[in-house]
Amino acid sequence: MKTQKFEILAAQSNIDWVGKKVTGAHNGTIGIKEGEIILNNGKLEGGKFIIDTASIKILDVTDPGTNAQFAGHLASDDFFAIEKYPEATLEITSVSGNDVEADLTIKGITHPINFDAAIAVNGDNLSATTKLLVDRTKYEMKFRSGNFFQNLGDTLIYNDFELSIDVTAKAVQPVLA
Length: 177
Description:
Layout: E1 2-8, E2 14-21, E3 24-40, E4 43-58, H1 64-75, E5 87-96, E6 99-106, E7 109-122, E8 125-135, E9 157-171, E10 175-176
Antiparallel strand pairs: 1-3, 1-9, 1-10, 2-3, 2-9, 3-4, 4-5, 5-6, 6-7, 7-8, 8-9
InterPro entries: Lipid/polyisoprenoid-bd_YceI, TTHA0802/YceI-like_sf
Domain Lipid/polyisoprenoid-binding YceI-like: 5-170
Organism: Pedobacter panaciterrae
């Protein structure tokens, strides 16, 4: 049985996010600080990602003042509480085929999440992609949520946000199990 560890190349990996509201959507990026992916006989077995919440950027708001105000709001306790929680984590707990179970921790709150992952290995290089649908209210992000506030009208923000993860990793010394 051959176990192989791949270290995530943060500069070559990225996470795109989309948050939707009644009147449209916003999108941006958030960085991966570090992480690893573990393969066993060429199949995904485990891994952990550390996400740099302080790196969150908004791409669709072009006015600098509005963008800074929005970024400040995402950094606040209404959303990611970045000063107190500068990192979020995604840790794989089990894998069955392409179906991945993981623990997602945001703001110190952990919940299981399920997703499909596509992984390709070419020599010492690994690429992986996936999409996650995250219910922000599970992580104490209740701002303008219809679950907690009534009569929001067109100011309602939907509870789910999407993360599209694209990871590049490089093999480190393989470990034989």
